[in-house]
């Protein structure tokens, strides 16, 4: 039993903790760049609240509100220019995974030469200690980005989605206030929650999983199976939001020290080629087929998850429970209202071979219990079409 575990982020968890942002972030400087999506009615009260809290702590705030879903290199560069112009000493990512990932990438580009794309995980040149401190405040429960060292960005010209991966991208502080999730609509609640499910699932089934991650990931899966459908139906229930915020944090802690697998490699490629497809929706489209194809290579773990999803399988043999996991997942996805085929998502059938090749660019597929070939990915995508 040999493993490592690292989590340098100071996590402040609980309802109402947004009011502590000024106090905990002030140690990083007196000037910050606040990174968000464009304002909309549901988030406006929270935006006013955070600006007020920072002002009371005498922190100067410059607001960059240009974040988009599947944020691009161009978006990051715009934010980095503003950060340099205003002399930001730290960056606050406020919102979903796109906002927090953008804030991380801005923290790198604003303090280094070139663009964030020059610092992807496989480059020789990596972010240095000059990276601006990052404070993460999630308003969704899905990506776990507030406790990871990853920032995902899209290169529109290359139709490619990739990631920065470096310990310097761990947020210094994460303020997880479930009250901020109360206005998230049902569909986005389902998509982000399913993404958290996938993070925990893949962290658990990969050979890179450690005994520490097993504890975190399984608890996350139990919480999501029980509370995500409830949160989708009753979006303003604080208890459900609190449980999902904790599950999301557990999932983030898991992937930060384990790995994602084949489904994430495919979903990343899909969003790179088709930016209009939300990450959680891409995962939902391919998950059941992948599980049915690969359950034989991690029977005990697949059976364990199947029993979490359906306790009546407790008395069934591991092989049977593992084999039925694909069906359980399909029902779960359908119950959440996010069951869609690749055709329904706008994927072009003639581009499936290209999508399959792109799915094997990132190393995620190598972390799967069974390492697929290009031809096998093409077959899986055809089944999902």
TrEMBL record:
PROSITE patterns: ADH_IRON_1. It comes from the Bacteria. SUPFAM superfamilies: Dehydroquinate synthase-like. Residues 189-381 form the Fe-containing alcohol dehydrogenase-like C-terminal domain. Pfam families: ADH_Fe_C, Fe-ADH. InterPro entries: ADH_Fe/GldA (IPR001670), ADH_Fe_C (IPR056798), ADH_Fe_CS (IPR018211), Alcohol_dehydrogenase_Fe (IPR039697). Keywords: Oxidoreductase. Gene3D superfamilies: 3.40.50.1970, Dehydroquinate synthase-like - alpha domain. GO terms for molecular function: alcohol dehydrogenase (NAD+) activity; metal ion binding. The keyword Oxidoreductase applies. Residues 8-178 form the Alcohol dehydrogenase iron-type/glycerol dehydrogenase GldA domain. This is Alcohol dehydrogenase.
